[in-house]
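ARCHIVE CARD
Drawer: 12
Card no.: 0347
Subject: one protein chain, sequence and derived structure
Cross-reference: see card 0346
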Amino acid sequence: MSIHPVLLCGGSGTRLWPLSRKSYPKQFASLIGDESLFQASARRLEGQGFAQPLVVTGSDFRFIVTEQLAKAGIEPSSILIEPSARNTAPAILAAALVIAANSPDGLVLVAPSDHVIPDAERFRAAVLAAAEVARAGQIVTFGIRPDRAETGYGWLELAAPPAADFAPVPQPLVRFAEKPDLAAAEAMLESRRHLWNAGIFLFRADVLIAAFEKHQPDMLLRVREAVAGGQADLAFTRLAATPWNSLEDISIDYAIMEKAPNLSVLPYGGAWSDLGGWEAVWREARPDAQGVATNGAALAIDCEDTLLRSENDGLEVVGIGLKDIVAVAMPDAVLIAHKSRAQDVRLAVSALKARGAKQAETFPRDHRPWGWFESLAAGSRFQVKRIVVHPGAALSLQSHHHRAEHWIVVEGTARVTIDETVRLVSENQSIYIPLGAVHRLENPGKVLLTLIEVQTGSYLGEDDIIRYEDIYARGQGEKG
């Protein structure tokens, strides 16, 4: 019997700002290695013994999910779209109900999509080692071997210390421990009976549903309604909004795990990180002998215990004589912080939001189902963008009330519709779209289409779109 992976992919955390933002959270970024955290998570849960993954995400991220899975060569079994974020309990229950419809006693493995687990083979072996007790009716949570008195994680208390070699042998859970203060964390580390709570669970679908029936019957009723009322939308299933939006915002730990009597822990001794802040990224980036880790166009001179990252090939980041510093440069924002204050990045995001700065939540590169664009320059009545369209993709048939556009193709070939005229525009050619003209941009080729767009007009906002046709079934209120 295959294990059904469920990837939770709806978070929009701020602790890795400016690289992670509400419009493009950390799971989609390549923080460690060439793949995104989401792609690495999906790849880690494929292979013999594992079914195709089910993904739970938000509407804003649905096309990023499909694009990144396609690049990783992974076909999902389902992609559930949450009408609104309601934390992990409703999301996990919805996934369990969908899987139970075809496999009531099927094993479900729930995992966040933004964790780093370098040894995928060891982790899969640990999951398979937990399968027997999960089939017997236990809900298995995975406990990580702690290597420090961490106050940023919840902990799991065991009846006895795990084996010295951390052999993957499930044992009963005594209790969940909230994020501790430093003294309590040091005591738990010393006891050897406490592990970090990874938020990874393995269970039979019917067992979890029964736990909700006992401990959260109202939530079960409403999530059933949201699943039953779900609507197919291209490759996605949109859960019904009315019952879903009435749900409590609550984690699976509070809703079920702290109440359920049938809990076991699988000790996992391999490397793991939730990349919960820039200090964690520094740690996972394998700093050199001086404790320096760099990424991109970054140069460190006489630095110690420092992270320098440039997320723009044309922007050199140089650190001289730095110690315990995090410096991250994006095209539109730069973070400089002492490593000990890296968790306070959320304070900066809140302050930027209060000032109305778009950098607080909006990523400089705006991803769409057809590709992406970024602004290169802007003034009171003009804006210059770079637009990249995937092979075979097309923007919606649209018009604008307030702006005209001039497109210059710099790579590939575009098929351009303007009112009743359709023509091909190749590299070094350009075309003008008058204000009010009904137009569409397509990439008919097999390579990326890149063009420079010059907008002119009295209003240049992304919401100035009248959409007539769209192969991605987006409504008038959606961008691009």
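Annotation on reverse: The chain has a mean pLDDT of 93. The chain is about 25% helix and 30% strand.
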